[in-house]
Amino acid sequence: MDHSAYGSFAIGGDLTVDRLGFGAMRLARNGMDATARDPQTARAVLRRAAELGVDHIDTADFYRSADGAVRANNLIRRALFPYPAGLVIATKVGPVFGPDGPTQGTAADLRPAVEANLEALGVDHLDLVYLRIGWRTPPHGESLSERFDVLAALREQGLIRHLGLSNIDQAHLSEAQHIAPVAAIQNLFNPADADEAALAERAAAERIAFVPFGGLGSGHGSARDESYATVARRHDATVAQVALAHALTLSPNILAIPGTGSLAHLEENVAARSLTLTQDDIAALG
Fold it and tell me: Class assignment of domain 8-285?
């Protein structure tokens, strides 16, 4: 596939992907209200993403509409199977969704969750599986060893190629690395947060992919938003495009996974691959 001007990154050393991929969370549901999206449109978005050279899709078996009728993994399989050569599909396990909402799953929940992803996607192994712990912020001091042990065993059995961690801190990373190699980290990343910046820097030094699951500094005030708007006006671009380009300039191990259920928004996101920020732009964005 034709990689963007921002280049590629080899997840785990052998899964080479364009640094701008696609997040599947919004395929099945309309934002946080969880109402179902039109499956036909969602499949069209996936097919167009593949046509545009997107070769990294981030998903989860629990990405579904509130009624469970529309599911991201089912959409991916129906739209793209048999999968294009070189397509990397990453998924995550950990949360368990029941009638009363999400809860943190246990080690016993992980193998069934991995098997559900395998079945829905129609594959015999998963390229990358993240262990997701906690919710919006890392659960500092919480051990993940028992859960990561399960995923490491599934990796040894050939059901998983590479392992990742989501919503973690540096202590979690060190704990996991005593069990098995960590190929990727997926966190809500704000570069102004010293702890997150240090984790991202460590990931770069250790050749671990760092995948923000929110825009840079999401919800952290209007000053950054205005900086993005100013740079966007200079380039006749959108704020979202500038935010994506900014993420990709920070470090060569950062991968972006913007998600959408809209064809127009997909085209806009992918166009950010060709947006080159100047040194003045980068300085303005902080």
Answer: alpha beta
Each residue's pLDDT tens digit in the chain (286 positions)? Answer: 345 678 999 999 999 999 999 999 999 987 656 678 899 999 999 999 999 999 999 999 999 988 888 999 999 999 999 999 999 999 999 999 877 777 889 999 999 999 999 999 999 999 999 999 998 789 999 999 999 999 999 999 999 999 999 999 999 999 999 999 999 999 988 888 899 999 999 999 999 999 998 766 544 445 567 888 999 999 999 999 999 999 999 999 999 999 999 999 999 999 999 999 999 999 998 7
Structure tokens given for 51: 């046509």
Over the range 20-43, which residues count as b (16 or more CB within 10 Å of their CB) and which as e?
bbbbbbbbbbeeeeeebbebeebb
- Please choose, from the candidates 258, 261, 268, 256, the residue with its C-alpha nearest in 3D space to the C-alpha of residue 232: 268
Element holding 92 (H helix, E strand): strand 88-93
The verdict on whether 6 is a catalytic residue reads no
Inter-residue contact 164 to 13 (CB < 8 Å):
no
Angle between helices 110-121 and 72-80 in degrees, nearest 10: 30
Of the residues 63, 83, 130, 228, only one is catalytic, namely: 63
